[in-house]
Amino acid sequence: MACSSWPLWVDLAAGRAAPLDGELTTDELHTRWGDSYYFLIDDAHMRVPFAAYERVIKGPRRAYFLPRSNTLLSIEPPAAG
Predict the structure, then answer these.
(1) Whole-prediction pTM value?
(2) What domain range includes position 36?
(3) CA-based nearest residue to 67, from 6, 5, 16
(4) Residue 48 in domain
(5) Is 32 exposed, middle or buried (0-12, 13-18, 19+ CB in 10 A)?
(6) How many structural domains does the chain have?
(7) Is 42 within a domain?
(8) Could you give the CA distance from residue 61 to residue 21 in angstroms, rounded to a whole number?
């Protein structure tokens, strides 16, 4: 596996994902070098592919992500309760 991101290596070595519950919103950044798309929950900004960005339903969500690299692993509706 090729990985050039030090924060990602640290996250993978820890072997744990962090859960994050909150209101999912989206953001996009357009520059002359390209476009970037993000899911935002609380203070976490997770870069996602355009296909995920255009299909996500905003609202309450639970995300599992790698906290140092802000790598999104999964996203789902919040647990009932």
Answers:
(1) 0.76
(2) 6-76
(3) 16
(4) yes
(5) exposed
(6) 1
(7) yes
(8) 6
* Residue 1, domain member (yes or no): no
The reply to whether 81 falls in a domain is: no
d(CA 56, CA 39): 9
The backbone torsions φ and ψ at residue 79, rounded to the nearest 5 degrees and listed phi first, read -65, 140
What is the DSSP track for 5-72? Answer: -HHHHHHHHHT-PEEEEEEEEEEEEEETTEEEEEEEETTEEEEE-HHHHHHPPPEEEEEEEETTTTEE
Who's near 5: CB < 8 A, 6+ residues apart? 69
Name residue 13's amino acid.
A
CB 71 within 8 A of CB 8: yes
Residue 36 has pLDDT above 90, yes or no: yes
Predicted confidence band at 23 (pLDDT cuts at 50, 70, 90)? very high
